[in-house]
Amino acid sequence: MLRRPAKRVRTFDRRLHRLLENMVETMRDGKGVGLAAPQVGLDQRIFVIEYPEDEEEPEETMQRYEIINPEIVKAKGSEIAHEACLSLPGLAAEVDRATYVLVKAQDRHGKPLRIKAYDWLARIFQHEIDHLGGVLMVDKAEQVYKVVEVEDGEPELVPVEDLFH
After folding, report:
1. Contact residues for 78 (Cβ-Cβ < 8 A; gap 6+)
2. Which of 55, 128, 149, 154 is catalytic?
C-alpha cells in the first residue's frame, strides 16, 4: 500500500470527517506530526498534520491541518535535515527538501485551500505528499540512520551501512 499512488477523493461526507478524526488520533498515538492515508491502509489522497509553531509553548501554538487532494504548486529553497516516519519506526534519514512550498488542496468539505508552508512545516507537507505518491523518505535520503536509544541523553543515530560491518 505504501508504494502505490493514492486516488483522488471525490466524496466529502461524514465518513471522511470520521476518517480525518481517526487519523489525527492515530498520529497522536504514534507521537508523529503527520500521517497520510496510505499509512493506515487507504489509497486516498488525504493526510493530517499537527505540530506546534513554537516549541517553547507547544499546547498554545498547536496547528492542525486536514488536507485532501494536495498538489505542490511552487517550491523554493533547499535544506538537508533529519526526518522520521511512523511507517519506518527506528529509522531516520537525511532528506533534501524545499524550504518553502505553496500547496493547493481541499478541506474536509471540499472547499479549495492554498497553504504557504515554510521550513519545518514545508518539510512535513512534502513528506506527506510523497506518501500519497508512493514515495518514502528512504527513497530520497542522502543518508539513512538507525535510531539507537541511549540511557541518558538524546538517541544516537547510527548510519545504516555501519550496522552491517
Report:
1. 96, 97, 98, 99
2. 128
